[in-house]
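Example 3.2
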Amino acid sequence: MNSSLTKSGFIFLLSFGCFQSFGQVNEPKSETPTIEPQQEPIYAFVEEPAEFPTGATGFFSYVKENLRYPENARKSKIEGKCFLQFVVQKDGSISDVKVKKGVPDCPECDAEAIRLLKSMPNWKPGVNNGEKVNSLFSIPVTFKL
């Protein structure tokens, strides 16, 4: 191995170690150590996607039975699709429901779509390498009179 490369690498490591030491010396010491909770990863792509308990057909039946068309939207004859994104946790529960693209001129429709998804039963979670994982899921909710 080239000795000049080794010496410069050693000097770099030595310098880096010094900077680390200065950073630690200047940091205020806490009497109680804090432990950051580790968040489990959320997978956008999984080997086996999450699924509504009774499949896609069951999901559409659930929407049909539980969607409450907002009165203002009904009176104004507003129709459209609300595109939502949410996380199916590895226990099947739903979290982090967000509107990615809402129904134009109808925030009530978007709020109803969020309510609908938050009230869903637990899903079958996504699976990677034979293990249940948190996974990202996107779905449209259609408002049609």
